[in-house]
Amino acid sequence: MDLHAPLGRERKDKPQGKSRFGLSTVTSAFAVLTLVGLSAWTSLSPTALRSEPPINLTPRPPETAVVAEDTADRSPTDPPAGISTSGPNDGAVLRRTTTADGNVVTTFSPNARTGPVVIGNAPTQDPRLAGQPNEDLIELTDAGELPTVSASGLRPVDFYARPWSGARGTRIAIVIGGIGLSQTGSQMAIRDLPEDITLAFAATGNSLQRWMQEARRKGHEIVLQVPMEPFDFPANDPGRGTLLAEKSAATNIANLHQAMAQITNYTGIMNYMGARFLSDDKAMDPVMRDIGKRGLMFLDDGSTARSLSGDFAKAIGFPHAFADVMIDTQVDRQAILAKLDELERIARRNGQAIGVGAAFDETIAAVAEWRNEAVARGIEFVGVSALANDNRP
Fold first, then answer.
1. Does any domain span residue 116?
2. Residue 294 maps to which CATH number?
């Protein structure tokens, strides 16, 4: 065959004869060589023929967060950069993407879980969305919207927590309660207290959703105060829906859920009164279990030494904090400042301390003044969840 002849034609001046290689033979040989070459390139190429899963650049707002990651101290056993976990039920894969305007968008999706994992940098709420709940952390019930752990294991106590530096210096958390009981007191607390002071919302208060959104946009971490039975009940009545030691578990859980549904975006539950209820193990058991399974912290105001809240937190396995000082047992400026000085001494001795008070005018003014002076002395003020003991197994 004359390979220089036009395709499909032969020259007449050459003798006709059978060719050793037909067109089909040449084509087959070329295909084999091509396949062999491609296979060799694939096996030797460092990138090979593989594809990465698509990255979602347009997540729903409640699923996004700006997460800072420090890789300076990363060890070989740490999770890979861009991936963090936040608990024994967590298998969330985090993907961080920098958008054109410089913002860092984080999306997370469920991943297979093979066992307990080491706590890492759990995603926290984008400050721009702080007044809105994360839909993945809400359970719709007959009582209303209740907090819950997400499908990936993300807990409200982690997501709604106020970020802090992570430094090992002296840390103090101050919790001011009774938000919602007085319009003047609530407004003054949110307006005048620095954003690193935690606010506790009374479940029996008014306009709670409005106050919650305003407080969260300001940057405050918040907890929810649930009324519990004191020893002198009913002479001393914490209010509607009080959890009572002699009531059935179903009734107390129903009242707990009614309280929980008043607002969203809180990191935990705090008792309002409750000396008797907190010391009754039978009454406490179902309530503490419900709080724990919802991914919340329990903050004990420290008003009774007989409280069993810490024992339940350890047994069930959820975050727990215990207040060191009630700062306004006397509603007097000098007395409150003296209690705050006591709080600082405890913090310097133990590395951290928690103080609790109420939204009285005197308390708010004293805390705002003293906090600024304490910062100048090297104290870091953090959200109360940062000082909780996390009892996860």
1. no
2. 3.20.20.370
